[in-house]
Amino acid sequence: MSADTVANGPVMRCPSCRARFRPPPGCTVDERVHCPHCGAKVRLDLEVLIGSVVDGWQVEKRLGKGSMGTVFRVRGHHQGAETLAAMKVLNPRSARDKELRSRFEREIHLCQNLSHPGLVACLAVGEHQQLPYLVMELVEGIPLDRVVDRSGAMDPRKATALIAQVAEVLAYLQRHSIVHRDVKPENIMVDRSHRAKLIDMGFAKDRSSADAEVQQLTLEGTALGSPAYMAPEQVRDSATATEATDCYGLGATYYHLVTGCLPYDGSNAIQVMQTILREAPPSPRQIRPQLPVGVAAAVTWMMARDPLQRPASMEDLLPHLQRLRRDPHAAGGIPSGGICRTWYWWLAALAVVVLVALAIMYLR
CA dihedral defined by 239, 240, 246, 247, rounded to 10 degrees? Predict the structure, then answer.
């Protein structure tokens, strides 16, 4: 069943006869009503909320709809001022599912307790008709995947500036022991001033939490919708994701921005994930030969197949990104072939040990 937004509330479309009708006043989500045209029973979805007031928030229109719920544009008052905001409401099926409800409640908890200019601010939380909701700052912008779809590969400096902004957000999350686990262009909103915001904390994991149930929540469903940005270890077991996994997702996003292509492609999600486990993506300069060597090196480093060969942290990565913003060709300090500096130190130490051992054997 679908709905059109009108001034006085939603006009629903009957799935049987396709005729439009307005639900009777006072109807609730998940309620069954009869289509006035064909008599078929129609189950009302979340869009019946359009035109209503939810705890002081006037529901104006639908902004988006996913498998777990719907996001509406709402108008209300926050801190004494009239405010346009986004309200995310869990749908009845998801609200009845223990794991999906836990995910949403975790997202609410994180949104309430985290504060950064690159994250969406929480304005209010509550429950309406036994369905939890989250009212958030309304981000006036478009997701990065749509930017690339419209304009193709980005200018390397512009892409690097956006990636650096998201890296700062991820560095903040890392300081709070949070792993996002779903870094991808679709979850990065960009406004007209080219400011980036990382959205959708629904799959984030608090590594400091001792709650075993929280730690075992998976990316099932959403992960299958965007496998091209998943790290190899995440494909094997999303519950084991670490900060290095977010680094890979950001690197895959960087790859997409500067080449205009997905790092991995295939006819279906399973095929893409099998390829991720089997091989590295084509070199960024293989896709876009004129790409500055420094940018290509950073992408390769961030997308190293071995998590230990990626930047040790976002704090370690940020100085390189800031340098690339000034000079996209500056590859100095960025490991070639995706081998990070930590490993160079280990190799150097191993070489010293071997030389000492050989010297002792020679003296004997």
Answer: -160
Burial grade of 175 (CB within 10 A; 0-12, 13-18, 19 or more): exposed
| CB atoms closer than 10 angstroms to residue 96 | 12
Q: CATH 3.30.200.20: which residues of the chain?
A: 50-137
Is 141-208+224-326 in CATH node 3.40.1190.10?
no
* Residue-wise DSSP of 29-97: TT-EEE-TTT--EEE--GGGGTTSEETTEEEEEEEEE-SSEEEEEEEEEETTEEEEEEEEEE-HHHHHS
Type of residue found at 144: L
How many Å apart are CA 41 and CA 31, to the nearest integer? 10
Token pair 């790290």: residue: 231
Give 225-258 pLDDT, tens digit per residue: 478 999 999 999 877 889 999 999 999 999 999 9
Q: Which tens digits make up the pLDDT trace of 186-229?
A: 999 998 888 999 998 888 888 876 554 444 555 444 443 478 99
Q: What is the pTM of this model?
A: 0.81
